[in-house]
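Researcher: I've been going back and forth with a colleague about how SnoaL-like domain-containing protein might be arranged in three dimensions. Neither of us has a model we trust, so I'd like an independent prediction. The organism is Flagellimonas flava, in case that matters for your notes. Sequence below.
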Amino acid sequence: MKQLFFSCFALILIISCNQGPTRYTQNSPEIDTVKNLIANYDAKNYDTSMYADSSQTQYNSSKTMTAAETMDFHRQSDANYSSRGFVTEDQEYEMVLTDDGETWVNCWLEWQGTLAANGKKVKIPIHLTYRFTSGKIVREYGYWDPTEVVLTLQQLAAEAKMAEEENAEE
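Model: Here is an independent structure prediction for SnoaL-like domain-containing protein. You can compare it with whatever you and your colleague have in mind.
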């Protein structure tokens, strides 16, 4: 009887100590990949090697871009700024393994830029999330409020048009 009790106790102990995979962490190879991607963005190095060939990116819309289109998006946006990049302080990263077995990395960052046209400095909080498969990014979503930048660029364009029309009248 004692032997049966100790055997059951040992079995319960072994089962209770057997933990599954880590479901949440702030240190992983996937997080390192995202940090490298952020560093590449800051350095204007538009490397797509971290993305799977079939990756899809969506920034503030349902429009889907390939990795190459995403890099083109960044290049085109750069024309608006004399400087831009992510603030290095208070960056938060987490990796989550979902119930469906998907690996996601989330990050919360602050982006800052200086508009080339008027020198206005802008800071924007940004949330980025990445789904990984076999160490490559297969999905990327980015969310931020571009209102201040858009309104400023629209105002500058309107002022330039007014000045052009005034010069044409003279």
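Researcher: What would you highlight for our discussion?
Model: I'd start with this: Helices lie at 2-17, 29-42, 67-78, 147-169. After that, consider the following. The first strand starts at residue 24 and ends at 25.
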